[in-house]
């Protein structure tokens, strides 16, 4: 089907289109320069906002961890049962939505691409099975590297070539997209009930430090030229004073040379949880101004928010020791999971409360990061779904970013600590629609290296979101209207197909799964396979030949070829 989207106010930052009234043409699923009107279905978008489909680079929607959350929280499901419709399946929503519901709800908000940011390699098949049950959106998954036996071994041996070969092999074996690192070294130490408390602590049993793991993986990532940078959940997450560790981590990779055509070498995830100053919960204050100051003066770092929402949610990270800490802080129920040679995870339900001073400060920190970092190309809106809150609250975050009044109205309801221990009350900046388009689609697409996403130029995927709000009449005081408009897209178009009309799902195509394929030089691959065979024989519970994910698990795939060695 050919489509013409007529007369909307278009926000397409990659092509420097800022609210101009123009028509968008889609042919065979792709954006094209022009189309004759009689050969296309015409959508009247006059008086509305038109943006590329939303791109979420960090949302836990598939795999063993979210599934543990689903098992742990029947009360979460009871709160939000979702009946089936003529075109959609039944399921449950809220903080641990079923796969189908996650796909529908992203599409309803105008999102068309979502990345699962923590895939335990051993659980890769399960991740892909769930991604195949997540309709409409395109997606990928990032395998976990920061506590993997082979990574630690090659880092200890200082063998960057073998590390690169292993990364390339594991991406192919798991059909993964980017290097995810969670509390590097800490999760390995957690297998002995320990943790690491900084960049230069020693990892139990390996004689390497988190600093070595991070810099080696960053170097290997850039030398291989992977489409995304390393995707890092820093050490000391959730510990007061941890903004120092975050600053140190950003400094640690300053001299890593980025791949050609890119400036950045490090993406820090859900930075809010790693921007805490003070030395205890009682003296907690925001470290966001210091982080923002650093990011504003260095080009190599990007980050996403991990914005807190005041609601009941389910925290889940690959950071086993942190989740144990949170379990002790809250007394809530808890699951720990250990993925033998590779990773771990923990799940704890949590409620962010308006009157809790720590939660109020956390809420403000996320917004401070977004507003104090000048360049929206380097700070991306996320809630680290479901850790800071479910992704379905994105429209609320958009309202806070676009309206000081929205922030003030919330600040009046929450603990005064948010005013006293953060700078949020002094910030007057308000995002405009152009900046929202940057932080929610253009910039994440760019940092992921997805050239066909996040923009509306010829050749881009025909992914478009149309929101029923007139930007020429809208004022920041009308923040509830922007929240409403972004909650239910007037139209969502995915690959040229209309999938949402008036906020309702009308079609459920299966999106594609991106993965990265790097060819390994033959001799290096031979050496690696010898090593892997021995490692698997001695330590793994499954044999090497049963480990890689077969193509059957990716019925709609997009292989991204990377020339790692020249
Ligand atoms: Zn996360």
Structural class: alpha/beta
Bulk shape: globular
Approximate strand percentage: 15-25%
Low-confidence parts, pLDDT < 50 over ≥5 residues?
A: none
Q: What's the tally of helices?
A: 18
Q: Which sheet architecture does the biggest sheet show?
A: 9 strands, mixed
- CATH topology description of the domain at 54-447: TIM Barrel
**How many whole angstroms does the radius of gyration measure?**
22 Å
CATH class of the domain at 54-447: Alpha Beta
Bound molecules: zinc ion
Estimate the helix proportion, in percent. Answer: 25-40%
CATH architecture assignment name of the domain at 54-447: Alpha-Beta Barrel
Indicate the multimeric state: single chain
Cα(first) to Cα(last) distance is 41 Å
Number of strands: 26
Mean pLDDT: 97
Q: CATH-wise, what's the superfamily of the domain at 54-447?
A: Metal-dependent hydrolases
